[in-house]
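The following block was generated as part of the benchmark described in Methods. Ligand: ribulose-5-phosphate.
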Amino acid sequence: MSQDTEKKVAAEAAALLVEDGMRVGLGTGSTVAFLLPAIAARKLDIRCVATSVQTEEAARALGLTVESAAEVDRLDLAIDGADQIAPDFWLVKGGGAAQTREKIVAAMADRCVVIADSSKLVPRLHAPIPLELLQFGLQSTLRLLQNVMLRDVPPSPDGNVIADYAGAIGGPDALDTWLSSVPGVVAHGLFQPALVSKVIVGRGKKAEHLTRAF
Ligand code: 5RP
């Protein structure tokens, strides 16, 4: 079964979780691209916050109401993709360079649902880990981090540099703490299990609702 079929199946299952009156966070990426029309087709009265300019434009084009994140303090539900999903629900995100806004939106939401094709399930997380870095002091930040490759993409919508950490992961908890402690790191693509309420993965033509393995 193609990855696109699995992405669509997962996205359509997640769209059914959206209810009238909700405030909904919309992630970024090719899986979310299947989510937006599935939500729009339900003709619900909802207000959305988007994690990227691409998602915002696509959502508006489908008739969804998108508000600025600056005006919203919490969301009922966020739905987003992932690059890697470990059995304990640690995630790697940011393949689309949107990890900073995605993490903020996930944290704003009462529930965050991750949607993915089955290739995203991994036994353990591996490099690269996406990074968003401040331009100010960039050379120093790179020296402190080591093992970082700058990504050949435009700056983030917040004007920052997109890069990837290519070093060893070890325990994601320790790496999360260390990356967050380096001055100049705006955000990184490791998402803690506490940010993830549910994972819906497309497997063949079926959507599987996964629970976390501790
Ligand atoms: C963007 C992301 C995406 O959710 C992640 O890269 C998965 O993308 P896709 O659905 O295209 O496989 O984190 O920053």
